Amino acid sequence: MSFFSFKLLLTSFRHAGKGLVKAIKREQNLRIHFLIAIFVLLLAFYLKVNQLELIIIIILITLIFVLELFNSIFERLVDLLQPRIHHYAKEIKDINAAIVLVAAIGSAVVGLIIFLPKILSSF
Known about the structure:
Layout: H1 6-26, H2 28-46, H3 51-81, H4 87-121
Helix pairs in contact: 1-2, 2-3, 3-4
């Protein structure tokens, strides 16, 4: 048995890719975040943000995607374990959605801090 298997690594990437595609197809909020991310990245390149700003933007985009994927997992797990029977099931889903919302609002504020001065100075 070898320490590293390139074939197993490719299989893992293939499974991860299928999961991502499935999540994007099924989760409206993930699609919305994906479109916003594309817009933000295009805006970042158009406005020529500096390297640190671009790193921050990429980290925040990644954070939102990760949180949305976790939100999708938790929703499915809650449905599997307690499909809308217990009032905690709804609370868990709502709190988990709130986590994504808080991160999205924070990301939007950071985006305004980065982009607004550049947009205003171009007028």
